Amino acid sequence: MRVPSRSPGHRSGPPVTPARRRPRNSGHPSATVGPDLNAYRDAVAELLVEVGALAGASSTKARQVLIDQRLREPAIAAVLDATAQGLIGARETLLLEMARYQPNARSSAGDLAALVRIYLLSRIDVMWWRDSAAFLTDPEVHHSTELVDLEWLRRRDLLRFRYTEQPRTVVGRGVRALRRRVLPDATPHTAGLLFRRARREVVALLNDIGREFAAATPAGTPPLWVTSLVRSAEHQYRLRRLGYAAMVPSGHCLGWAADIEMDWFGRFGVRDTLAGLLLTRQRTGELNVVDEGQAWHICAAPSAALRLRRAYEAEMGV
Predict the structure, then answer these.
(1) Where are the alpha helices (DSSP H) in the chain?
(2) What is the percent of the chain with per-residue pLDDT over 70, rounded to a whole number?
(3) Cβ(158)–Cβ(315) under 8 Å?
(4) Of 121, 122, 133, 258, whose CA is between 20 and 30 Å from 179?
(5) What is the CA radius of gyration of the chain?
């Protein structure tokens, strides 16, 4: 069975340093040997301890000195320098993010250390996919032939994960609000997908994780739940204005990232099981994982892209 690509019929925001616009290319970066990501993650973890110790408002200058020093350490600099922004651009963006940080209920960054963690670990995504161009506008996402329609796949029982869409009308928002009052824990508390589209490779990855999760959990456990997939850069800036910790540039805007609900699965006793599955895949080099609290951000590695594309084509009968 052939699965066609279906689609429905200026950025504003803070002056962060954007990734350079490149020709559309969903292939692998040219480099086959990259920085040591284990060393990078270890160095970031050490930096977070120090950032946490300098969390007070009076420590702004000390935090800036700390960031200046630590980002130049070889383990961290190797990753940041390999992104489209480069080390200097990444440093300036992080310092600006920290200077403008305001905690709020919407943000996954509960404190400054969480903001730094999310920013630095998500730089692995943009390093991996630095040769891919971002989806800049909503129409680009809706009409891209690189993406497939999840609803078309869902109706044919070809997805091993669940999602919900954002309500588009006042009536739809009212129905959702009523449902949450009546059945508050029936589904995760998430806004849902604005774009129900994804790369074929990401569909294959989520299906694979979904099957593994189902096999590792007791009968009756809900399927894997995805809270976010591809986003346009236009939408990323909308999220920033609303207070979300939406980093720029982002693996979501390149189409290779997804967010997976975690906290909701705690009520079924399987949150740690899901976390273990994701971290195991990170250790094998298939994923980058960023703990964002309620949901975890994942990004497919370029080294896994060919296998995932073949898996999608085999599963869908393309």
Answers:
(1) 37-53, 60-70, 74-81, 86-99, 112-128, 138-143, 150-154, 170-182, 200-216, 233-241, 251-254, 271-283, 302-316
(2) 82
(3) yes
(4) 258
(5) 19
Most confident of 172-176, 192-196, 309-313: 309-313
C-beta separation of 172 from 62 below 8 A: no
**For residue 191, what are its two tokens?**
């806004």
Which amino acid, 249?
A: P
Q: Do the beta carbons of residue 292 and residue 245 sit within 8 Å?
A: yes
133 DSSP 8-state letter: P
* Closest listed residue to residue 90, CA positions, set 290, 249, 234: 249
DSSP 3-state of 193: strand
DSSP 225: E
Helix (H) or strand (E) holding 290: strand 287-292
pTM score, whole prediction: 0.85
Measured distance CA(244)–CA(103) in Å, rounded: 10
What distance in Å separates the CA atoms of residue 99 and residue 89, rounded to the nearest whole number? 15
- Are the C-beta atoms of 164 and 187 separated by less than 8 Å? yes
Please check the confidence at residue 16 and state whether its pLDDT lies above 50: no
Asked if 1 and 316 count as a contact pair (C-beta separation under 8 A), the reply is: yes
Look at residue 116 in the predicted model and tell me its pLDDT: 97
pLDDT digits 0-9 by tens, 200-257: 999 999 999 999 999 999 999 999 999 999 999 999 999 999 999 999 999 999 999 9
State both tokens at 162.
């669940």
- Tell me the per-residue pLDDT of 139-171, one tens digit each, with 9 for 90 and over: 999 999 999 999 999 999 999 999 998 666 555
What are the residues whose beta carbons fall under 8 Å from the beta carbon of 81, sequence distance 6 or more? 87
